[in-house]
Design a protein that fits this description.
By secondary structure, this protein is of the alpha/beta class. The chain contains 15 helices and ten strands. Bound molecules: 5,6-dihydroxy-NADP (NZQ) and zinc ion. Zinc ion (ZN) binds next to α7.
Length: about 400
């Protein structure tokens, strides 16, 4: 196992009816900005629960944070935060609202000249301060409720970039599985596959003798395979909703990624598909991951075989046959929850390949994935494999 440091101070408040606890979780006397998306919380009753719990607090609302939150929108919020001397941000929504709020928190206290640098120069300069954040999660998927990551899109240039900082770790996150009841099928499917691929990014690399992390990872994958379809079949099955929600949080709160190599190539390429074509985040991952497993079958052999055997019970055949069967099972799982896995399914043709290659080259990226096993030429091959 590799050396590691682990820090995760996010207080999780989990369960039915727990949104009411906001009253005691938000600091007394805080000037609060409540951020949310396009209005789903007004239809499913979450907005009313939050407002009731915040009775007596000084609350400014900022709505309209879109899926794949836009820098342009978030900067409007930053102006309001500064003008009203807001000192606490409460994000109520899915990954987009949470990520957007993390960016608002960091951009408000940013001392550099251009807050866009938080995303474009993340390897050179660090976020040194951010406003405190609390969250009420409404969509299990990203793990944003218990991590310090944020992904922001600049609409005018079609760029989708991420940053990470301990300063934007939420002070608390409320996870009430009842929020799952109002989710459209498409969003449940997106959440299942996003959480699944988060585990794969931290697991499907090469062995470093890390049985705890491996078995935690396999248990999250198995839970998603078992519970995901139950949530899709019956949205008001509370127990399945609760297991799905906790699985998605555990998939990306840092725990399974400690002391092990990580990949993240699927996400890096996937973000470009969202940036250029607006494909939902989770869906981009299901397009790319099978291509990486196929092309990098030698580098990832030991872990693909372990995953195939422990998660899908594939034990027969040569190594290559077992790897093929494992990729096939993974693709079938994605398709079974309603997520298509080829570029053609989304109306995207081969012209995307040079666009992504050019963009990586312009950013000076030479290789991605664990040990840099994926060159830019490989990125083109992976996309080629996933055309139709
Ligand atoms: O905007 P509203 O009206 O609220 O509707 C949302 C939105 O249209 C709706 N929704 C959310 N909760 C609902 C609901 N509808 C009914 N009932 C509910 N309870 O769902 C739609 C999608 O929401 P969004 O927040 O965009 O989805 P998700 O949670 O999948 O977040 C995706 C974003 O997170 C980023 C992605 O790149 C993408 O921008 N990610 C963040 C990560 C992180 N912070 O660690 C990691 C991920 O890999 C990912 O990159
Ligand atoms: Zn993801």
């Amino acid at each position: 196992m590799n050396n590691f440091e682990f820090f995760n101070p996010v207080k999780i408040v989990f369960g039915k009816g727990e949104i009411a606890k906001l009253t005691n979780l938000v600091p007394k006397g805080a000037k609060v900005m409540m951020t949310y998306g396009g209005g789903s919380i007004k239809k499913n009753g979450i907005y009313d629960q939050v407002k009731t719990a915040l009775t007596g607090f000084d609350v400014t609302e900022f709505s309209g944070i879109e899926a794949n939150p836009h820098y342009e929108t978030l900067m409007k919020a930053v102006q309001i935060v500064k003008a009203n001397k807001i000192d606490f941000l409460l994000a109520v929504g899915g990954g987009s609202v949470l990520d957007g709020t993390k960016f608002i928190a960091a951009a408000t206290l940013w001392e550099g000249s251009d807050p866009w640098d938080i995303l474009t120069r993340r390897n050179e300069i660090n976020v040194e301060a951010a406003l405190p954040i609390g969250t009420v999660l409404t969509l299990p998927a990203t793990g944003s409720e218990m991590n310090g990551n944020s992904v922001v899109t600049r609409w005018e240039t079609k760029e989708k970039l991420a940053f990470g900082s301990d300063f934007v770790l939420p002070k608390f996150s409320i996870l009430d599985p009842l929020v799952v009841f109002s989710l459209p099928e498409k969003q449940v499917a997106n959440g299942i596959v996003d959480a699944f691929v988060h585990v794969m990014e931290q697991y499907l690399t090469y062995p470093v003798n890390s049985p705890i992390q491996d078995r935690f990872a396999e248990s999250i994958l198995t839970t998603l395979i078992e519970e995901g379809p139950k949530v899709l079949a019956n949205r008001t099955d509370y127990e399945s909703a609760a297991n799905f929600m906790w699985a998605a949080t555990m998939a990306l709160n840092g725990l399974i990624g400690v002391g092990v190599p990580q990949d993240w190539a699927t996400h890096t390429i996937g973000h470009e598909l969202t940036a250029f074509h607006g494909i939902d985040h989770g869906r981009t991952l299901c397009i790319i991951l099978p291509g990486i497993m196929n092309l990098k079958r030698e580098d990832k052999k030991a872990k693909i075989l372990q995953y195939g055997e422990r998660v899908w019970k594939i034990t027969e055949g040569s190594d290559d046959e077992r790897i093929d069967a494992t990729i096939e099972k993974t693709v079938s799982f994605f398709e079974s929850v309603g997520v298509k896995t080829k570029l053609a399914d989304y109306g995207v043709g081969s012209d995307i390949i040079p666009k992504i290659v050019e963009r990586f080259e312009a950013r000076g990226i030479k290789s991605i994935g664990e040990r840099g096993i994926i060159s830019i030429a490989d990125v083109a091959k992976i996309l080629e494999l996933r055309l139709k």
